[in-house]
Amino acid sequence: MRINDPLAGKTVVKGKREENVKKAVVSLTLDAAFDLFYSAKKAEGTRDRTRADYVRHWRYFCDWLSTTYPHAKINDVTATAIRSYVNYMSTKTKYENVLNRELESGKFLEGTHQTLRANE
Fold first, then answer.
1. Measuring CA to CA, which residue among 27, 53, 24, 25 is closest to residue 38?
2. How many helices (H) and strands (E) does the chain have?
3. Against a cut of 0.85, is the pTM above it?
4. Can you list the alpha helix ranges (DSSP code H) found in 8-99?
5. Domain residue spans in the chain?
6. Cβ(74)–Cβ(35) below 8 Å
7. Per residue of the chain (120 residues), what is the pLDDT tens digit?
8. Coiled-coil intervals in this record (predicted)?
């Protein structure tokens, strides 16, 4: 018994299909990209606190990005830029540049201690 193969006798073309596919150009602003991300996370049902953390971390990233890569677009945020940001954050001191946080020893006060010190 012979099975009818609809592809019998056809030529196989390998690697040519990708030439015909046009790649979409992403032209989102960074804020629009974050809004899209945030909406997806909200739809997934993430907790309010988690989404608040996303917003806070996004603000830190945008502050760094504006000084390091001014006028950056979504396509400018490469793996190299992300690694640079992670390195920056890993060397940044918590509460750096916040008034009444630094002790004479060079260490920083936590929030509760800062409030107590301000009320003295």
1. 53
2. 5, 0
3. no
4. 17-20, 30-44, 48-68, 79-91
5. 26-91
6. no
7. 556 777 777 777 666 555 555 666 567 889 999 999 999 999 999 999 999 999 999 999 999 999 998 888 888 889 999 999 999 888 876 656 666 555 556 555 554 444 444 444
8. none
